[in-house]
Amino acid sequence: MTNRRLTFPELFELPTVVDLRTAARAVGISINTAYKLVHAERFPCRVMRLGWRYQVPTAALLAALDVNGPAVHPDDVRRGAAFANTIS
Fold this sequence. Notes:
By secondary structure, the chain is an alpha+beta fold. Helix content is 48%, strand content 12%.
C-alpha cells in the first residue's frame, strides 16, 4: 500500500465515510501516527469507532483540511474531457 497523499480529485471522489488509512493518507501521515492520534483523541477530525474499525466522515475530513468542496464537479470535468476528445 502506498503512503502517497491523496490529490484533490481523489478527495472529491471519496465515499461519505472512509477508513482510517484513507483519512491518514488525506492528511499526509502514516497509519501508525493516525492510530496514535486517535488513541490520544488528537486526530484532526471526528473519528467514529464502529465495532473494531475506525471510520472517518468525509465531510469532517474535508473540513479539517479546510476544503469546502470542488470548484468544479468531477463529472463536469469528465464530460468536458470527453467532449474535447470529439473535436477534431
